[in-house]
Amino acid sequence: MSILNRPSDGLLSVLLALRRAVLAYGPRPDSELIRLVAPSSVVPEGKPELARMTLNRWKQLGFFDDVGGVIHLTSTIAGIAADDLPSVRAAVLRLVLKNENNPAFMQDNDEVREDAKASDCTRAIAWALAQDPYGFPASYKGGVESLQDAQGVEPRPFRNDTRWAGFSEWATFLGIGWKTTKISFVPHPAVAVRFTLDAVFRGAKELPQADFFSGLADSLPIVDGGRYRVSIENKMARPGECQQV
């Protein structure tokens, strides 16, 4: 499974709570950490499955380290100030897009593989950013669902509306777009691009246009020219099909 399947792979809110618990109380065995963020007085029947699944998934993705049964934040995450949420968002985006966290991205059966890691999220983001943002559907049913069918993209980015709900939450947090009460997601990666500018410029004050776009595609491979974006575009049988508005 992968991070869009929230019942099996946890929640964004729990990930943030786990981070704050480690910062506040220090490294803890996983059972103690889970009790801190999902105490039996709050979680029905004292069964903190979502907290456990969130912790397990983000250990795999490199947010946490398990050192002899004790959970630590990895060095990159530990170096972020407690209240610096933008830096957390940027760090999580980098983890999601790492090559090693997308081992099944090119495989048709990645959504049922335990080693898919962040592959479904990466595919969904790349597909969404390949669309016309002004004509992007406002909802999954009758919108996103029919658009991916019309384009003949395989594997489909979304098998059901449960995955779509997970995508809308994660993609907004990662700076890939935004949502409102009436529109579930609008592709708009300006925040993600801002997160990536230091890696693109590498200390330079200015770059030729071609070098900028090439560097951006390397550092943020879900935009035009990036390896994930190119892959998803190559898997569209009818890329010209678009949502009618």
Give the SSE layout.
Blueprint: H1 6-9, H2 12-25, E1 28-29, H3 30-37, H4 49-60, E2 64-67, E3 70-73, H5 75-78, H6 85-97, H7 119-129, H8 140-151, H9 161-173, E4 177-178, E5 186-187, H10 190-201, H11 209-219, H12 227-234
Antiparallel strand pairs: 1-3, 2-3, 4-5
Helix pairs in contact: 2-3, 2-4, 7-12, 10-11
Descriptive keywords:
three-stranded antiparallel sheet, 245 residues, two-stranded antiparallel ribbon, globular, mainly alpha
Count of helical stretches? 12
Low-confidence stretches: 108-112
> What Rg do the Cα atoms give?
19 Å
Question: What is the straight-line distance between the termini?
Answer: 34 Å
Strand content: 5-15%
The biggest beta sheet reads: 3 strands, antiparallel
Detailed description of the structure:
Helices cover 50% and strands 6% of the residues. The protein has helices at 6-9, 12-25, 30-37, 49-60, 75-78, 85-97, 119-129, 140-151, 161-173, 190-201, 209-219, 227-234; strands at 28-29, 64-67, 70-73, 177-178, 186-187. The chain has a three-stranded antiparallel β-sheet with strand order 1-3-2. The radius of gyration is 19 Å and the shape is globular.
Short description:
The protein has 12 helices and 5 strands. The strands form 2 sheets. The chain has a 3-stranded antiparallel beta sheet with strand order 1-3-2. Strands 4-5 form a two-stranded antiparallel sheet.
